[in-house]
Design a protein that fits this description.
Bound molecules: zinc ion
Strand content: 15-25%
Distance between the termini: 44 Å
Number of strands: 6
């Protein structure tokens, strides 16, 4: 169905397959499978910011695509069979503020990058949070799992403020 005919997303109220589809050529015609819990959490993030659009920078990635872009080999973006992760941004909102909203909502692993926030619904062990310093993620491990803001400030130092 076309977007014009139906204002509701085909995955959830506000999210569409085309937004979370793996961008590689091989996946162009494949059905997009995204974990319902992730979609529910993304809807909650959207609500937390007064229904501002949540822009998906990366949703599903097949293993080849994930390798191609240098993703973690065990990435939540790889559908198995459904994708459990997304990199998101919201216009005018800092990635750390998306992360803090996600922490409040709960049940999400949170990776804060300079221009986006990674969210996924995989188990938070050992790390619940990570922050990208340049391209390299620093993981919270088991000791820094209590507070995203505390963890983020330690990792980023003055930059994180
Ligand atoms: Zn693909
Ligand atoms: Zn990601």
């Amino acid at each position: 169905m076309d977007r014009k005919d139906n204002p509701l997303g085909d995955l959830s109220t506000n999210f569409w397959s085309f937004e979370l589809r793996c961008p590689c050529k091989k996946c162009r015609r494949k059905k997009v499978l995204v974990d319902d819990l992730l979609l529910f959490k993304l809807e909650m993030i959207r609500m937390a910011f007064g229904s501002l659009p949540v822009i998906i920078l990366s949703g599903n990635r097949c293993p080849e695509e994930n390798k191609h872009i240098g993703g973690h080999p065990d990435s939540a973006h790889i559908p198995a069979p459904a994708g459990k992760g997304a990199d998101v941004k919201i216009k005018g909102v800092k990635p750390i503020d998306i992360g803090l909203a996600a922490e409040k909502i709960g049940g999400l692993r949170i990776g804060v990058a300079r221009t986006y926030c990674h969210l996924d619904v995989k188990p938070p062990r050992p790390s619940r949070f990570w922050a990208y310093v340049g391209k390299k993620p620093i993981y919270s491990g088991s000791i820094g799992n209590e507070s995203l803001l505390k963890f983020y400030k330690i990792v980023m130092g003055e930059e994180g403020k």
